[in-house]
Amino acid sequence: MAATKHAQTIKQDSQDYLATALLALLETHDLTDLTVTQVVKRAGVSRMAFYRNFDTLDAVLTTHFAPIMAVGFADVLAHAPEDQKLAALGTFFTKLGPTLRLAVDRGFEPVFQNLFDDNMQHFYAVTMTWKGATPTQQKYWTQFMSAGVYRLWREWLLGGQQESLTTMHDLLAAFQTGTMTALMALANPTT
Predict the structure, then answer these.
(1) Long-range contacts (CB closer than 8 Å, 24 or more residues apart) made by 143-149
(2) Using CA atoms, how far apart are residues 13 and 65, in angstroms rounded to an integer?
(3) Which of 67, 168, 178, 186 has its CA 20 to 30 Å from the CA of residue 33?
């Protein structure tokens, strides 16, 4: 049992070293310009350690950012009152602003966006009441809203946050309510 725990600790340390090294290199290099060799050299681990843990540099980033994103969303779901969940997400997204900027500038935005999308879809699955919408309608509404929320926050965060956080929350709430109203009209047409 101790060897297993020790092996798990070594594996986690290797993953942490690799993520730290990759993020440090991304401060000055685009992801497409980096190699596994550069990352393992910076991390002080072997190529074998890299390939025992990851297939690609994208996988290092996904493994690093997945728990950060999941914890932020889980915190909002568990602790924010129902009528404040969108506002709480806005505060969380604001904290992610520097990471989003790095992701855009250094070419790993798809990793960031995929994690955001997965968590946003879970958020809507937990928080929405569907009132007769079909599974297909639920699926596409959620995908539509997730993509829209990402683009809205991306534009705001990268555009210098000219509008207040409250304005952004109100805008998002209006989009969400308006599209849900339209979906419910489609799902429950009056005769």
Answers:
(1) 144/179, 145/120, 145/175, 145/176, 145/179, 146/116, 146/117, 146/120, 146/121, 147/117, 148/175, 149/89, 149/120
(2) 16
(3) 67
pTM, rounded to two decimals: 0.86
**Calpha distance 28→16 (Å, rounded):** 19
Q: Which two tokens stand for residue 135?
A: 């599974």
The residues spanned by each domain of the chain are 1-54, 56-187
- pLDDT > 90? residue 15: yes
Fold of 1-54: Arc Repressor Mutant, subunit A (1.10.10)
- The confidence score (pLDDT) of residue 19 equals 96
Taking alpha carbons only, the member of 77, 115, 118 closest to residue 96 is 115
CATH 1.20.58 is the classification of domain 56-187? no
